[in-house]
């Protein structure tokens, strides 16, 4: 069992708070309201890994919603005004004990790698915040969905604005997003489509 974020891998230090290469990571931060929308519908079990945690929006929202911060492990290759518990490439992250849940807003250019790695290390659930077009292409179908379709797709009916680089700017474009959820305790069930009607400003 993973306890109190002790995993024995490369840990963040005070010297890791600055990173000149932060813009290489394709950072688009997850709005807290979008995380709360997922929390209304899905209970994240056990030990949770926040993969590619960015500025900490997901973990902060989970903790505000009642999740124990000691049960959440943050992993990121970079530090962006938030120092992850484990500072490393998530796709090389191999915990000694598998977490129950992985939640992530992955870099779009590493979408397949993040999803497949999450499915390989989570024991119960994977939740991925993704552009709706992440469901497209024959390549992604072959590499992810053919053998591992999500159990649930939660589609936002309103476009979601994710701040580029963690900066809230009115110039950022809104995009259609969804939560892809894999319930690994009941594999090979048909994918169910749900709609999320909440939008920014709603609780």
Give a quick summary of the entry.
The protein has 203 residues and is of the alpha/beta class. Helix content is 18%, strand content 21%.
Oligomeric nature of the chains: single chain
Structural class: alpha/beta
Largest sheet: 8 strands, mixed
Approximate shape: globular
Overall average pLDDT: 85
Helical residue percent band = 10-25%
Describe the structure.
With 203 residues, the chain is an alpha/beta fold. It is built from 4 helices and 10 strands; from the N terminus they run αβαβββαβαβββββ. The chain has helices spanning 32-41, 57-64, 111-121, 138-145, and strands at 48-51, 72-76, 86-87, 101-104, 125-131, 152-156, 160-161, 174-175, 177-183, 192-196. It starts with 31 loop residues before the first helix and ends in a 7-residue tail after the last strand. It is globular. The model is unreliable at 13-23 (pLDDT under 50). Helix 2 (57-64) links the parallel strand 1 and strand 2 (72-76).
Provide tags for this entry:
alpha/beta; two-stranded antiparallel sheet; 21% strand; globular; 4 helices; eight-stranded mixed beta sheet; 203 residues
Task: Give a topology summary.
Layout: H1 32-41, E1 48-51, H2 57-64, E2 72-76, E3 86-87, E4 101-104, H3 111-121, E5 125-131, H4 138-145, E6 152-156, E7 160-161, E8 174-175, E9 177-183, E10 192-196
Parallel strand pairs: 1-2, 1-4, 2-3, 4-5, 6-10
Antiparallel strand pairs: 5-9, 6-9, 7-8
């Amino acid at each position: 069992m993973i306890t109190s974020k002790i995993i024995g891998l490369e840990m963040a230090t005070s010297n890791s708070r600055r990173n000149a290469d932060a813009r290489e990571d394709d950072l688009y931060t997850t709005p807290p309201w979008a995380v709360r929308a997922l929390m209304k519908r899905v209970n994240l079990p056990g030990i949770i890994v926040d993969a590619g945690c960015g500025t900490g929006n997901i973990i902060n929202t989970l903790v505000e919603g009642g999740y124990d911060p000691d049960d959440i492990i943050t992993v990121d290759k970079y530090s962006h005004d938030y120092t992850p518990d484990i500072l490393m490439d998530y796709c090389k992250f191999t915990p000694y004990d598998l977490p129950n849940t992985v939640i992530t807003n992955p870099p779009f250019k590493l979408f397949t790698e993040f999803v497949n790695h999450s499915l390989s290390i989570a024991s119960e659930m994977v939740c991925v915040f993704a552009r709706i077009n992440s469901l497209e292409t024959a390549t992604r179908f072959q590499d992810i969905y053919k053998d591992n379709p999500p159990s649930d797709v939660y589609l936002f009916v309103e476009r979601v604005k994710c701040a580029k680089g963690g900066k809230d700017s009115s110039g950022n474009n809104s995009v259609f997003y969804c939560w892809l959820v894999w319930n690994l305790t009941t594999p090979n069930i048909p994918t169910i489509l749900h709609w999320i009607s909440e939008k920014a400003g709603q609780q």
